[in-house]
Description:
Order of helices and strands: HHHHHEHEHEHHEEHEEHEEE
Number of helices: 11
Radius of gyration: 20 Å
Helix content: 40-55%
Largest sheet: 7 strands, mixed
Structural class: alpha/beta
Distance between the termini: 55 Å
Number of domains: 2
CATH class of the largest domain: Alpha Beta
Strand order of the largest sheet: 6-2-1-7-8-10-9
CATH superfamily of the largest domain: Vaccinia Virus protein VP39
Strand content: 15-25%
Amino acid sequence: MKPDDYEFIATFLQRVSGLSLGSGKEYLVKSRLVPLAVTMGFDDFNHLLVELRRGRDCRLSTAVTEAMTTNETSFFRDKTPFEDLKNTLIPALVTARSSVKKLRVWCAAAATGQEPYSLLMMLNESFPELKQWTVEIVATDIAQTMIDRSREGIYSQFEVQRGLPIQYLVKYFSQVPQGWQIKEALRQRIVWQKLNLLDRFDSLGPFDLVLCRNVLIYFEVPMKRDILDRVAKLLRPDGYLLLGAAETVLGICDRFDRYRGCSSAVYSLRGVARESMVSQVRP
């Protein structure tokens, strides 16, 4: 790939999605865009680039962005954040919201949907009192193809074997020709929405809990700061933000402090006094 072609792709992706390729990722670009060129009927990769440079085909721009977006996820990914949610964060929010019996959660960059479905299954199993509450889980992603697939909730045998307890598979899934499908009763409880984190999202909030895991690592610092500042405005004063294990707000955004009551990357709004909480291990 010519250097100017790579620079064009990198600049294009950062402008439309915030994704920072860095240097030396030519192999990644070609591995994802060469198959796309075939699928979309171009003679070769170079013809796709020519048309993308012209900027006249919104469908092509969207397809390239979606092809280059990393959608790696799994059920109960990383385990520790879900333990912190179950043992500390959700119990604290249940106590704090006991008078209104309402809870709102945002799963940003939800990819193929395993994270919000995992959260919902955990709430069902460990917090039966929430069945009498209004619980809203909003799941967003930049790619409409991911939103459509998440809403359908069909996963391969390989995908359901990655982190999903067998008892959950039996209880919450039905076997279909394509694999396993989340039962409709759960699918209907999640609000799916296409969203680019570079765009305004102030109308989504407010939220008691925001999961924005393993997405900010792909952005440059100014964009990380902007997104975190806007997330802070949506978070209720005593709410929580969960980032990925390799992500931090340190040196990027001064709106949050690390919440020391958890092992995973949990943050609370700076300046909000909190009572110390003892973990309440749920069955």
